Protein backbone atom coordinates (compact mmCIF):
# COMPACT_ATOMS: atom_id res chain seq x y z
CA UNK A 1 0.00 0.00 0.00
CA UNK A 2 1.13 3.55 -0.73
CA UNK A 3 0.56 6.72 1.27
CA UNK A 4 0.69 10.40 0.31
CA UNK A 5 1.79 13.30 2.49
CA UNK A 6 2.07 16.87 1.33
CA UNK A 7 2.52 20.59 1.83
CA UNK A 8 1.45 23.40 -0.53
CA UNK A 9 4.84 22.97 -2.26
CA UNK A 10 5.47 19.23 -2.30
CA UNK A 11 3.58 15.93 -2.58
CA UNK A 12 5.39 12.77 -1.51
CA UNK A 13 4.32 9.16 -1.99
CA UNK A 14 5.73 6.36 0.19
CA UNK A 15 5.22 2.60 -0.05
CA UNK A 16 4.86 0.29 2.94
CA UNK A 17 7.19 -2.10 1.11
CA UNK A 18 10.64 -1.12 2.27
CA UNK A 19 9.23 2.24 3.48
CA UNK A 20 10.45 3.34 0.05
CA UNK A 21 9.87 6.73 -1.50
CA UNK A 22 7.84 6.38 -4.69
CA UNK A 23 7.35 9.96 -5.81
CA UNK A 24 8.42 13.52 -5.03
CA UNK A 25 6.42 16.11 -6.99
CA UNK A 26 6.41 19.88 -6.69
CA UNK A 27 3.31 22.08 -6.95
CA UNK A 28 3.83 22.37 -10.71
CA UNK A 29 3.69 18.59 -11.08
CA UNK A 30 7.39 18.06 -11.84
CA UNK A 31 8.53 14.60 -10.76
CA UNK A 32 11.96 14.67 -9.11
CA UNK A 33 12.27 11.02 -8.09
CA UNK A 34 13.38 8.38 -10.58
CA UNK A 35 10.38 6.21 -11.46
CA UNK A 36 12.05 2.84 -11.75
CA UNK A 37 12.28 2.10 -15.48
CA UNK A 38 13.50 -1.53 -15.48
CA UNK A 39 15.47 -0.91 -18.66
CA UNK A 40 17.95 0.91 -16.40
CA UNK A 41 17.12 0.33 -12.73
CA UNK A 42 13.78 -0.89 -11.38
CA UNK A 43 14.12 0.60 -7.89
CA UNK A 44 13.45 4.21 -6.91
CA UNK A 45 14.79 4.94 -3.42
CA UNK A 46 15.60 1.83 -1.37
CA UNK A 47 16.29 2.20 2.33
CA UNK A 48 19.49 0.37 3.29
CA UNK A 49 19.66 -1.66 6.53
CA UNK A 50 21.41 -3.42 8.27
CA UNK A 51 24.34 -3.44 5.83
CA UNK A 52 25.41 -1.09 3.07
CA UNK A 53 26.24 -2.59 -0.35
CA UNK A 54 27.90 -5.99 -0.77
CA UNK A 55 29.11 -8.64 1.62
CA UNK A 56 31.97 -10.83 0.43
CA UNK A 57 30.43 -14.18 -0.57
CA UNK A 58 27.12 -12.74 0.65
CA UNK A 59 28.18 -13.62 4.18
CA UNK A 60 29.44 -12.16 7.45
CA UNK A 61 30.38 -13.27 10.95
CA UNK A 62 28.61 -12.14 14.12
CA UNK A 63 28.83 -13.81 17.53
CA UNK A 64 31.30 -16.23 15.97
CA UNK A 65 28.67 -17.57 13.56
CA UNK A 66 28.32 -17.21 9.79
CA UNK A 67 25.20 -15.53 8.36
CA UNK A 68 24.06 -14.71 4.84
CA UNK A 69 22.52 -11.45 3.62
CA UNK A 70 21.83 -9.89 0.22
CA UNK A 71 23.33 -6.54 -0.90
CA UNK A 72 21.98 -3.50 0.96
CA UNK A 73 20.39 -5.70 3.62
CA UNK A 74 16.80 -6.88 3.95
CA UNK A 75 14.79 -3.77 4.89
CA UNK A 76 14.14 -2.91 1.24
CA UNK A 77 12.18 -6.17 0.79
CA UNK A 78 10.20 -6.11 4.04
CA UNK A 79 6.75 -4.65 4.63
CA UNK A 80 6.77 -1.86 7.22
CA UNK A 81 3.88 -1.13 9.58
CA UNK A 82 2.32 2.34 9.62
CA UNK A 83 2.73 3.75 13.12
CA UNK A 84 1.19 7.17 12.51
CA UNK A 85 0.02 9.35 9.66
CA UNK A 86 -0.82 13.03 9.35
CA UNK A 87 -1.34 15.27 6.32
CA UNK A 88 2.37 16.06 6.17
CA UNK A 89 3.93 13.25 8.23
CA UNK A 90 4.25 9.47 8.03
CA UNK A 91 6.00 7.05 10.39
CA UNK A 92 6.64 3.43 9.45
CA UNK A 93 8.34 0.69 11.44
CA UNK A 94 10.09 -2.60 10.80
CA UNK A 95 10.80 -4.91 13.71
CA UNK A 96 12.64 -8.20 13.80
CA UNK A 97 10.83 -11.40 12.98
CA UNK A 98 11.94 -14.93 12.20
CA UNK A 99 13.02 -14.23 8.63
CA UNK A 100 15.10 -11.20 9.65
CA UNK A 101 16.52 -12.94 12.70
CA UNK A 102 17.85 -15.73 10.50
CA UNK A 103 19.84 -13.14 8.53
CA UNK A 104 20.64 -10.76 11.37
CA UNK A 105 20.49 -12.20 14.90
CA UNK A 106 19.38 -9.08 16.76
CA UNK A 107 16.06 -7.79 18.10
CA UNK A 108 15.58 -4.30 16.70
CA UNK A 109 13.21 -1.58 15.63
CA UNK A 110 13.81 0.49 12.51
CA UNK A 111 11.51 3.48 12.17
CA UNK A 112 11.44 5.70 9.10
CA UNK A 113 9.78 9.08 9.57
CA UNK A 114 8.90 11.30 6.62
CA UNK A 115 7.92 14.92 7.22
CA UNK A 116 7.03 17.33 4.41
CA UNK A 117 7.99 20.84 5.53
CA UNK A 118 7.48 23.38 2.75
CA UNK A 119 9.65 22.24 -0.17
CA UNK A 120 11.75 19.98 2.07
CA UNK A 121 11.25 16.30 2.77
CA UNK A 122 12.76 15.49 6.17
CA UNK A 123 13.69 11.85 6.71
CA UNK A 124 14.69 10.33 10.03
CA UNK A 125 15.95 6.76 10.37
CA UNK A 126 15.61 5.67 14.03
CA UNK A 127 17.24 2.41 15.09
CA UNK A 128 16.50 0.93 18.51
CA UNK A 129 18.43 -2.01 19.92
CA UNK A 130 15.85 -4.26 21.59
CA UNK A 131 18.36 -7.04 22.11
CA UNK A 132 20.53 -7.87 25.10
CA UNK A 133 23.63 -7.73 22.90
CA UNK A 134 25.36 -4.90 21.05
CA UNK A 135 24.13 -4.15 17.53
CA UNK A 136 26.52 -3.56 14.63
CA UNK A 137 24.93 -2.24 11.46
CA UNK A 138 25.05 0.03 8.46
CA UNK A 139 22.26 2.29 7.27
CA UNK A 140 21.68 4.65 4.38
CA UNK A 141 19.49 6.07 1.66
CA UNK A 142 19.57 5.29 -2.07
CA UNK A 143 17.26 7.78 -3.83
CA UNK A 144 17.46 8.21 -7.58
CA UNK A 145 16.65 11.59 -9.14
CA UNK A 146 15.54 12.28 -12.68
CA UNK A 147 18.24 13.85 -14.85
CA UNK A 148 17.23 15.87 -16.74
CA UNK A 149 14.28 17.33 -14.85
CA UNK A 150 12.82 18.85 -18.01
CA UNK A 151 12.56 17.40 -21.49
CA UNK A 152 14.46 20.32 -23.05
CA UNK A 153 17.71 19.53 -21.26
CA UNK A 154 20.33 16.79 -21.38
CA UNK A 155 22.07 14.71 -18.71
CA UNK A 156 25.35 16.52 -19.35
CA UNK A 157 23.73 19.89 -18.58
CA UNK A 158 23.70 19.00 -14.86
CA UNK A 159 26.30 18.98 -12.13
CA UNK A 160 26.59 18.27 -8.41
CA UNK A 161 27.68 21.15 -6.19
CA UNK A 162 28.76 20.66 -2.59
CA UNK A 163 27.69 23.22 -0.03
CA UNK A 164 31.26 24.20 0.76
CA UNK A 165 34.74 23.64 -0.56
CA UNK A 166 36.08 20.21 0.33
CA UNK A 167 38.84 17.76 -0.56
CA UNK A 168 37.14 14.39 -0.88
CA UNK A 169 38.74 11.00 -1.00
CA UNK A 170 37.35 8.36 -3.34
CA UNK A 171 36.94 4.94 -1.76
CA UNK A 172 38.67 2.33 -3.90
CA UNK A 173 36.60 -0.55 -5.25
CA UNK A 174 37.48 -3.71 -7.14
CA UNK A 175 35.72 -4.50 -10.45
CA UNK A 176 33.29 -6.65 -8.43
CA UNK A 177 32.34 -3.72 -6.16
CA UNK A 178 34.20 -4.65 -3.00
CA UNK A 179 36.73 -2.51 -1.15
CA UNK A 180 40.31 -2.73 -2.39
CA UNK A 181 41.83 -0.86 0.57
CA UNK A 182 42.73 2.28 -1.40
CA UNK A 183 41.63 5.89 -1.03
CA UNK A 184 42.53 8.49 -3.62
CA UNK A 185 42.11 12.23 -3.95
CA UNK A 186 39.00 13.13 -5.96
CA UNK A 187 39.48 16.70 -7.20
CA UNK A 188 36.42 18.90 -7.59
CA UNK A 189 36.04 21.82 -9.96
CA UNK A 190 36.43 25.00 -7.92
CA UNK A 191 36.62 22.76 -4.85
CA UNK A 192 32.89 22.06 -5.03
CA UNK A 193 31.61 20.71 -8.38
CA UNK A 194 31.27 17.34 -10.11
CA UNK A 195 30.06 17.70 -13.71
CA UNK A 196 27.74 14.88 -14.68
CA UNK A 197 28.30 12.68 -17.70
CA UNK A 198 27.39 9.06 -18.29
CA UNK A 199 31.09 8.23 -18.61
CA UNK A 200 31.97 9.04 -15.00
CA UNK A 201 30.10 5.89 -13.95
CA UNK A 202 32.03 3.53 -16.22
CA UNK A 203 33.72 2.09 -13.11
CA UNK A 204 30.38 1.88 -11.26
CA UNK A 205 29.63 3.98 -8.18
CA UNK A 206 31.68 6.94 -7.01
CA UNK A 207 31.88 6.65 -3.22
CA UNK A 208 33.39 9.61 -1.38
CA UNK A 209 34.37 10.55 2.13
CA UNK A 210 35.58 13.87 3.57
CA UNK A 211 32.88 15.81 1.74
CA UNK A 212 30.54 18.52 2.99
CA UNK A 213 27.22 17.27 4.37
CA UNK A 214 25.07 18.86 1.66
CA UNK A 215 25.09 18.54 -2.13
CA UNK A 216 22.84 19.98 -4.84
CA UNK A 217 21.89 18.53 -8.22
CA UNK A 218 21.48 21.53 -10.52
CA UNK A 219 21.98 23.10 -13.93
CA UNK A 220 22.67 26.62 -15.14
CA UNK A 221 19.91 26.20 -17.73
CA UNK A 222 16.93 25.76 -15.40
CA UNK A 223 15.84 26.85 -11.91
CA UNK A 224 14.89 23.37 -10.72
CA UNK A 225 17.31 21.66 -8.37
CA UNK A 226 17.48 18.98 -5.68
CA UNK A 227 19.54 19.34 -2.50
CA UNK A 228 20.36 16.36 -0.31
CA UNK A 229 21.76 16.93 3.19
CA UNK A 230 23.11 14.15 5.42
CA UNK A 231 24.69 15.51 8.62
CA UNK A 232 25.41 12.13 10.27
CA UNK A 233 26.49 10.08 7.25
CA UNK A 234 30.23 9.69 6.70
CA UNK A 235 30.11 8.49 3.11
CA UNK A 236 28.34 9.57 -0.07
CA UNK A 237 27.61 7.30 -3.02
CA UNK A 238 26.92 8.76 -6.49
CA UNK A 239 25.70 6.26 -9.07
CA UNK A 240 23.76 5.28 -12.10
CA UNK A 241 23.82 2.00 -14.02
CA UNK A 242 27.34 1.89 -15.50
CA UNK A 243 27.95 1.97 -19.23
CA UNK A 244 24.43 3.16 -20.03
CA UNK A 245 22.70 6.44 -20.86
CA UNK A 246 20.52 6.13 -17.75
CA UNK A 247 18.50 9.35 -17.20
CA UNK A 248 18.93 9.52 -13.44
CA UNK A 249 21.55 9.85 -10.74
CA UNK A 250 21.48 8.37 -7.25
CA UNK A 251 22.71 10.46 -4.34
CA UNK A 252 23.29 7.99 -1.52
CA UNK A 253 24.14 8.98 2.08
CA UNK A 254 25.82 6.01 3.77
CA UNK A 255 26.87 5.41 7.36
CA UNK A 256 29.34 2.66 6.43
CA UNK A 257 31.06 0.78 3.63
CA UNK A 258 30.84 -2.67 2.00
CA UNK A 259 33.14 -5.61 2.61
CA UNK A 260 36.74 -5.92 1.50
CA UNK A 261 37.48 -8.08 -1.53
CA UNK A 262 37.89 -11.75 -0.57
CA UNK A 263 37.50 -10.99 3.14
CA UNK A 264 34.32 -12.03 4.93
CA UNK A 265 33.42 -9.24 7.32
CA UNK A 266 33.37 -9.77 11.07
CA UNK A 267 30.78 -7.26 12.24
CA UNK A 268 32.37 -6.76 15.65
CA UNK A 269 35.63 -5.78 13.91
CA UNK A 270 34.35 -3.68 10.98
CA UNK A 271 35.22 -0.24 12.28
CA UNK A 272 32.89 1.84 10.10
CA UNK A 273 29.73 0.03 11.25
CA UNK A 274 27.46 1.78 13.76
CA UNK A 275 27.67 0.33 17.26
CA UNK A 276 24.50 0.51 19.36
CA UNK A 277 24.21 -0.80 22.89
CA UNK A 278 21.11 -2.56 24.30
CA UNK A 279 18.03 -0.38 24.93
CA UNK A 280 19.59 2.55 23.05
CA UNK A 281 18.19 4.45 20.05
CA UNK A 282 20.15 6.36 17.44
CA UNK A 283 18.66 8.73 14.85
CA UNK A 284 20.01 9.38 11.38
CA UNK A 285 18.32 12.50 9.93
CA UNK A 286 18.67 13.59 6.34
CA UNK A 287 16.72 15.83 3.95
CA UNK A 288 15.73 16.28 0.33
CA UNK A 289 14.85 19.85 -0.72
CA UNK A 290 13.57 20.81 -4.14
CA UNK A 291 13.70 24.22 -5.77
CA UNK A 292 11.50 25.14 -8.72
Terminal CA distance: 29 Å
Tally of helical segments = 1
Low-pLDDT regions: none
Number of strands: 25
Q: How would the blueprint of this fold be written?
A:
Blueprint: E1 2-6, E2 10-15, E3 21-26, E4 47-48, E5 59-62, E6 65-68, E7 81-85, E8 89-95, H1 98-103, E9 108-117, E10 120-129, E11 135-137, E12 140-141, E13 144-146, E14 158-162, E15 169-173, E16 179-185, E17 193-195, E18 206-209, E19 214-219, E20 222-229, E21 235-239, E22 248-254, E23 265-266, E24 274-276, E25 281-291
Parallel strand pairs: 5-23
Antiparallel strand pairs: 1-2, 2-3, 4-12, 5-6, 7-8, 8-9, 9-10, 10-25, 11-24, 13-22, 14-17, 14-19, 15-16, 15-18, 18-21, 19-20, 20-25, 21-22
Question: Could you please describe the fold and organization of this structure?
Answer:
- The chain has 1 helix and 25 strands.
- It is 2% helix and 46% strand.
- It has one helix at 98-103; strands spanning 2-6, 10-15, 21-26, 47-48, 59-62, 65-68, 81-85, 89-95, 108-117, 120-129, 135-137, 140-141, 144-146, 158-162, 169-173, 179-185, 193-195, 206-209, 214-219, 222-229, 235-239, 248-254, 265-266, 274-276, 281-291.
- The longest helix is centred in the middle third of the chain and has 6 residues, at 98-103.
- It has 292 residues and is mostly beta strands.
- It has a single domain, classed as Beta-galactosidase, Chain A, domain 5 (Distorted Sandwich).
- It starts with a strand and ends with a strand.
Summarize the structure.
With 292 residues, the protein is mostly beta strands.
Which descriptors apply to this entry?
292 residues; mainly beta; 9-stranded antiparallel β-sheet; 46% strand; globular
